[in-house]
Design goal:
The protein is an alpha/beta fold. The chain is 34% helix and 19% strand.
Amino acid sequence: MTDTIERSDTEDGDRVLDHLVVRFAGDSGDGMQLTGDRFTSVSASFGNDLSTLPDFPAEIRAPAGTVNGVSAFQVNIADHEITTPGDEPNVLVAMNPAALKADLHRLEIGGTLIVNEDSFGDRDLDKAGYVDDAGEAVNPLLDDSLNGYRVLRVPMTSLTKQVCEPLGVKPRDAERSKNFFALGLVSWMYTRPIEPTEEWIDERFSKSAQVAAANKAAFHAGFNFGETTEAVGHRYEVRPARLPAGTYTSVTGNQALSWGLVAAGQLARLPVTLGSYPITPASDILHELSKQKHFGIRTLQAEDEIAAVGMALGAAFAGHLGVTTTSGPGVALKSETISLGVAIELPMLIVDIQRGGPSTGLPTKTEASDLNLALNGRHGESPLPIVAAYSPAHCFHAAIEAARIALKFRTPVILLSDGYLANGSEPWKLPDVDALPDISTPFATEANHVDADGNPEFWPYLRDPETLARPWAIPGTPGLEHRVGGLEKADGTGNIDYTPDNHQKMTELRAAKVAAVAADIAPTEVGGDVDADVLVLGWGSTWAAIDAAVQRRRRAGVKVAKAHVVHLNPLPPDLGDLLRRYRRVVLPELNSGQLAHHLRGTYLVDVTSVSKVAGLPFKSREIEAAIDAAVAEAADVPDRTVAPAGATTASTDEKGTDS
């Protein structure tokens, strides 16, 4: 069970909760994503902290009423800072039997189950798999299978049709508004303001007065049902969170990453060109950036992944910040052109919004299993920097950091996110624009070498002594004409040269340039207990569950520390010493232990891998169990304390009470 707390009763008799996890589930045509998004937006405007988990079906249109077609949206709202969408819902709204069958196991024991009882006919039950051995439909609302839950049976469909009938709406069209009935009911139960939703309906459905009227009527009917039906019982309230002062907006990871790319272009004083081919879950970045032409953003939807990355690399050659967005299958297709980018040493961003694999895999489910692909998925010796975002809001800053490295070191950079971050949302405090870094990079404008006869000439591979970056000359600059290509070239002149000694030299130079990025990485921040024997290390979207798990175990008196890695290649220069400081290092990953394997090979340090490849993010309790096991084992491990060269350690509970 989750640790929901009824703190007190208000003057109106409402009961106060410190947090609430609601999951809306129904057929993919029932509008559950829209319903969850509206509940989230209203809660954000009310001042709650929040975290969401949209859960889409893998098939574009699975058969209606089947378990494979269930779409769900989970949101955790709180009166304090949180990082996760919650391990288990306190409330499950099931719009049909398939949603109940798919998601009942997620609901906490004793939780509230709200079902649309109109959808529990024999045909609906049969499609969802509620049948006995004889093939007869079995209604879970009529047997003992839901004992242990608080069940509210609500005739949502019939009541929605009833309130829409005076508006002249046909019954089939009226049925589409039943999701707003559910939203209205949950809004009443948990004291959400109704005005923002009314205004949103008027704006969203402004092209059809009848549709807007039907949705508002259904919303009010659900709200009034809660108010007038004794079966619903008490109302509950989750009060606003005490967040740091500032202007906030609710943002998804893909939105934040898109805005980070816009900001990177402004900070670099460069036009941004995105070459992209639509692929789940990265397509929203193309959609968002296509709206930003006024910031000098150019977007091109290519015919395939190979063309898309070619556009990005060509844009980089022309002096733009070249970007391509994709998921794992697209990275594989782009690998040859990425290798070309490594060879000709141009700044380019490859954004990989990871999903479950291999092959087509799980397009709508989350996974972080492209790390090996990012590290090694190119032919030849072709290292490049890798940056990984860890939260929806952090995607903004991760995009700027990836662009900064690409521009400063003249190299392609892979930016990793995943489906959980891409579609999940959280409140984001708008940054102080003046505090963002200047990442502008000068172009070469004049000759940089003198030949034997004293004539000035341009050498395209004459390197900066600190970064080993080559000069960036825009094609057509008078006197700076030069060639680039995939054949091995001589350092300095750039002339074709694939002699053994030169290839050895160029291979080592390209690797040294990427290794030099480590000098630009800040010391690793360590939170938790200074004297802990166990460190929980993470990367990517595991940050949320790790943060919650570490806080919970520390509140229970368990000593544990945590650290998170954003730069995956090169790794932070202090990381090896930091890992050797602890008797046990626990590394949760949404893969089969890819970073753990890499760290063992790099530092010869034992790392306990905690692996999950279920298409779902970690629950904090899964990591808590790993912490407890590591703490129990740590007593038998010899002390290996080493001064953590530059690491900053704090004994703090950074986020307060998480859930």
